[in-house]
Design brief:
- The structure holds two protein chains of two kinds.
- Chain A is mainly β.
- Chain A has a domain of 80 residues: OB fold (Dihydrolipoamide Acetyltransferase, E2P) (Beta Barrel).
- Chain A has a five-stranded mixed β-barrel.
- Chain A starts with a strand and ends in a 34-residue tail after the last strand.
- Chain B is an all-beta fold.
- Chain B has a single domain, classed as Beta Barrel (OB fold (Dihydrolipoamide Acetyltransferase, E2P)), CATH 2.40.50.220.
- Chain B has no helices and five strands.
- The two termini of chain B are 19 Å apart.
- Classes of the chains: A mainly beta, B mainly beta.
- Chains A and B meet through strand 1 and strand 3 of A and strand 4 and strand 5 of B.
- Strand 1 of chain A pairs antiparallel with strand 5 of chain B.
């Protein structure tokens, strides 16, 4: 599911019979920081979202499940109107771990003779 | 779904038997303002669209949900003819 903003709507009189009665909205996809990303798409709507609203939408085969039991031919559906987003702000990268202590130097001296 | 403009037709004599009888159109994606975007797609027409018309296409497995396309090898279908796009 992805964030988006409603930026318009589409009127269509002649359409596939199983899409009749469904609203179609123009959606601008957004990043989690609410910056525009990607091209605008057409979504069916099951929430009654209006112009300028922040929504999230689902894509793919699952988009028609949002409109059950009808299952219209849609690959993108607005499934919720967003009230608020809590996003952890970017944090500085963690400092590198402290250097491991050097392994003890091997003991000097002659190796014990075998046998 | 995306907006597209019908720019041509495809004729195929030998094809999957489950595609027989369908009209195949070449569509070019367009922006909501009507500007052409990159690429072309061959789409099955379910609404009797004509050349030059602005249409709504649905792609992926959802295209098979269009009326008349059930259980057929279709991944892009034209499901509506656009009357008007209103941008806020």
């Amino acid at each position: 599911m992805y964030f988006g903003r409603v930026v318009g709507c589409v009127w269509s009189t002649v359409k596939n019979r199983n899409l009749e009665g469904h609203r179609m909205l123009v959606i601008q996809p957004l990043t989690a920081e609410l910056a525009n990303t990607g091209q605008r798409i057409i979504c069916t709507d099951c929430t009654g979202a209006g112009a300028g609203e922040l929504i999230y939408w689902v894509r793919g085969r699952e988009a028609s499940y949002a409109l059950l039991p009808q299952e219209p031919a849609t690959d993108a559906t607005v499934v919720a109107i967003v009230d608020s987003i809590h996003l952890k702000s970017k944090v500085a990268p963690a400092p590198p771990p402290p250097a491991a202590p050097a392994p003890p130097a091997p003991a000097k001296g002659r190796k014990p003779r075998k046998g | 779904m995306i907006l597209a403009r019908v720019v041509g037709t495809v004729v195929a004599t030998r094809k999957d038997p489950r595609l027989e009888g369908f009209k195949l159109l070449i569509v070019k994606p367009v922006s909501p303002e009507g500007k052409d975007e990159a690429g072309y797609v061959v789409a099955v027409d379910t609404v009797s669209a004509g050349i030059g018309e602005r249409v709504i296409t649905v792609s992926g497995s959802s295209a098979r949900m269009a009326e008349g396309c059930k259980d057929r090898p279709v991944d892009t279908a034209i499901v509506g003819i656009v009357d008007e796009v209103h941008l806020d």
